[in-house]
Amino acid sequence: MRRVRTCTAMVAVLLGGCASHAPVADVDRMGAAPSGYVVVRTYVDRFSFPEGDQLRRVEYGWDYDRGEAEQRIYTLEGELLERIPQPGLTLELTAAELERALALVRAHPRLAAIAAAPDIELHGGFSKREPGTMCDRGSRCVHVMGAGPEGGARLHAIVDLSKDRVVDPEYQGPDSLFRKGEK
Length: 183
Description:
The protein is of the alpha+beta class and 183 residues long. The chain has helices at 2-29, 95-107, 112-116, 177-180; strands spanning 37-49, 52-63, 68-74, 80-86, 121-127, 141-147, 153-160, 165-168.
């Protein structure tokens, strides 16, 4: 029985090593890391002015160059009226940002084999902002998790899209090396 377990573990390591090379292409195909201003959501709202109500397009986005969220207000014709920095605001990810975060996890040397397992489903994009850590203001950190059919996370990493890398491949909450600043 011991020999079977040893062989199984060796095969898993060898296959994991093979699987860790292919996902790097996923990151390369994604193109460059996010940069500039990325629109996260937009909607039309009614604003009240002394001369009457007017419709305006309101937009929220992430400015990768400045490392903060921003609200922009436009006329319906597209003229920018106001830019309002929102330094404490965390925004959900766009589909492209989420795909980039997942690709970075799939390409990470310590995570590639787990992420490539056929029974693992990757999901995430939940913002991570924690004062005094590498995911403080200016970062665009998100959780990425991988769970199997039995439930429970088999992978939990923190990705900082502003740095375009996995900043904590084995996030463990308060006991994480991430929190202790050892990475």
